[in-house]
Amino acid sequence: SYGDVTYTVRSMKGASYIPGDISKKVQVVSLPNTLQRLDYHALDGFTNLRLVKVSTTTPPELISEFKGNASSYVKVLLPKGTIHAYRIADSRWNDFLLIDGEGNEVSVKLSAAGTLSSEIVKKADYLQDVNILKVEGSMNTEDMNVIKKSMPNLVSIDLSDAQLTNIPDEWINGKWGVESITLPKVLTNIGSSAFNSCYHLATINIGSSAFRECRSLKEAELNEGLSELGTSVFYNCSNLKKVYLPSTLKTLSSYTFKYTSSLEDIKIAEGLQLIDQYAFEESGLKSITMPSTLK
Questions:
Q1: Are the CB atoms for 173 and 194 separated by under 8 Å?
Q2: CA gap 214, 65 in Å, rounded
Q3: How far is it, in rounded angstroms, from Cα 226 to Cα 243?
Q4: Which helix (H) or strand (E) holds 292?
Q5: Backbone torsions φ then ψ of 206, nearest 5 degrees
Q6: 217-245 pLDDT tens trace
Q7: How far apart are CA 276 and CA 86, in angstroms?
Q8: What is the model's pTM?
Q9: Are 109 and 133 in contact (CB under 8 A)?
């Protein structure tokens, strides 16, 4: 509205109409339910754009070159139940990461490894519709490839109750839209470049008691990107001697290293902010150098 006049927005032109220093700061664009088309270079200039919120259930017409030089890493939040209509209207909507409503969430329990795809389609029309995924049960390489190759719109992956010991090399390399990953409690290995170029990844969690009483475990080097360790992760790992904690880890939870009687060398990178009570109770540590980032 301007003064006493209210205008209806039916099309959007490029950010060239917005001062450059402003358009470069914009991360979220909300489109009204009256919008009918995105015009030439409609998103041009929004080089740091992360999210477009669309209100109209009828897909706006996309004019050639509507994206311009907008960021390539943009999520589009659609009205719930409209994702198929948008895909059918113009395949270029698939250039974005599409989120249906608040996110299409699917939880599956696998009775056998290699059945992830068939179990998901019992609960979602298409694999690519799923935004939030939780998996329980036995998984294998075939299942991991389903996530990697056939589920482009994932933002959250929870494998905490999956029977999976190995994350393959380059597993979700380049899956930039994933924001959160919870790793299996029985995990023993993360392959090289497993999460490379996951630009929006903010949280990697290792669940509580993940390695509890793994009494043959001698050394643990936790990858950069890990942000949270659940309680009792290395509880009673009686042969654990060396540990490296990455700079991205913010909190050591209670009982993380309780009863690690052989622990003698732990390196904590700058970045850790909080150590909960009893984190090192009855460990074998004689001394420890704390990071300056502790609060």
A1: yes
A2: 56
A3: 14
A4: none
A5: -105, 120
A6: 899 888 777 777 778 889 999 999 999 99
A7: 47
A8: 0.77
A9: no
